[in-house]
Design goal:
Elements lengths: L8 H13 L19 H16 L5 H7 L19 H7 L7 H27 L4 H25 L19 H15 L17 H13 L1 H5 L4 H14 L25 E5 L17 H5 L5 H4 L13 H4 L13 E2 L1 E2 L9 E5 H4 L11 E5 L1 E2 L18 H4 L4 E2 L17 E5 H13 L10 H9 L13 H11 L6 H7 L24 H6 L12
Antiparallel strand pairs: 1-8, 2-7, 3-6, 4-5
Helix pairs in contact: 1-2, 2-5, 2-6, 3-5, 5-6, 6-7, 7-8, 8-10, 8-16, 10-16, 16-17, 16-18
Family: Belongs to the SusD family.
Pfam families: SusD_RagB (PF07980)
Keywords: Cell outer membrane, Membrane, Signal
Amino acid sequence: MKKILKYLGLPVLMVGLFWSCEDLDVPITTQLTPEVFPQNSDQFRQSAYPVFAAFRGEFSFAWWWTQSLSTDEAILPSRGGNWFDNRNYISLHLHDWTPDNGIFSSLWDWSSKVIGMSNQTISILNQAMPAGTEKNTLISEIKTMRAMSYYILMDNFGGVPLDTVYGDFNPRPQSSRTEVFNFIEKELKKALPNLNSASGITTYGRPNKQTVNALLAKLYLNAQVYTGTSRYNECIAACDEVIKSGLYNVEPRATYLQMFYPNNGPQMKEFIFAIPYDVTAQSFFGLNGQMYHSRYDVPRSERAKFGLSFTPSAPRSTLPEFYANFNDANDIRNNQWLTGPQYNKDGTPLMVTTTKSGYDQFYKGEDAGATKTYQVDLTPDIILRANVTLFDLGNDEIAWNMGYRNIKFYPDASSTNRNQNNDVPFLRYSDVLLMKAEAILRGGAETLGQNPLALVNMVRSNRTTSAAWSSVTLEDLYKERSREFAWEAWHRNDMIRFGKYEGKWGYKTDTDIKRRLFPIPTTARNLNPALTQNDGYPN
């Protein structure tokens, strides 16, 4: 199941050769060209795989960081100077970022590369592939990936250049956010009839019809934010297409956490579109392409407990404001968190031996070097006890145990490096149900005999043994989304739509609504002088 990207090698070579040779005016007989490759069905599919591999690129890095660290969901402070990284993470928390933040550059570069690679692949397939259903399907898959990347750019940066022509490197100014919205909608609707209607292994890691419907639902649910015009009934209609397909189910409570285990994959009935990860896959195209959640989330004291082959850094955690949403003792989703006193898998206390000063660097007693053994206890608060300016908690056991940790993407003990085999969902069936419930609550019409309460309880009945809700409000729904999609990089999107992104949490006090859009990165503007900076940022 995890070998879905095993054919990357040849297409990657092919793409590199096309890039390096496109301007030559002499016949090429010893290298790959459209006249030599691709020439058959397998090769046509292989030529498209680099687009899917490229989409993995920064999905678990720049995409996750920007969507989560800029919210109350997650925080990544310094500890003893570690993870200061030119204030990149600190600024996401404080909302005082600038166009020079390298994470924005990575986010822009990643999405742009997927778009550019999609344009190239479409050009190659149009030249090499005979007309027919197979060609229509494959090109529609690539156009969907391109639309998905434009969605990410539009959601984060607003208006961006629209480019669908391979080989045209002229500087392009931004199209408006509404124009980009309309382009994405049009591309998805055009692709929809040609895409595969099946789910499971045959389409895993590639978009099918319901990928498009679920992404259209996202687009329409946020239309008020993106264009100033609500489109809730269209969101509901797109959700209904997914529901009526009968292809997906809400994962039962007993197996909810297994959706995110290292052995997950196409057998997960909630996954509409997921990013496949394989620890043996290589990084390509200058993009990371890997997934390091354990590295960032597992306390270093728990390496042996989870059987990791490396010592995790564990710099990031949640904030008390976000964890407050997990207030139902009967909810299986509580088990994605490491909180309070820690225990080994056999139930014995997890103990660490250090010195008194190693435990607390501010301890100045004469016995500072004396041995101290303690049970690891993860505390909820993030306290800048070492240096407020550097956002530094300290470099001792107290500092490293600050913050509740999320292990939803369960540590992969089978990996011999920091990469993990856990696939990461981008669109899930429970999201479709909650999007439909929200769209109705915001003024859309009920359909299929489903009201918001019934839809929310469809999810909750598979998550908690507590009694079903008897009523539901938008605020209830917001909290339910926080529980359901924690660590899945949708929280910024939700906070903006619910008007909460300008709130205060942790050490953040900024309330500027202009921060709903990130600045156009300096690196992007250096490459394309036709770009103009977003409102509220220095030119």
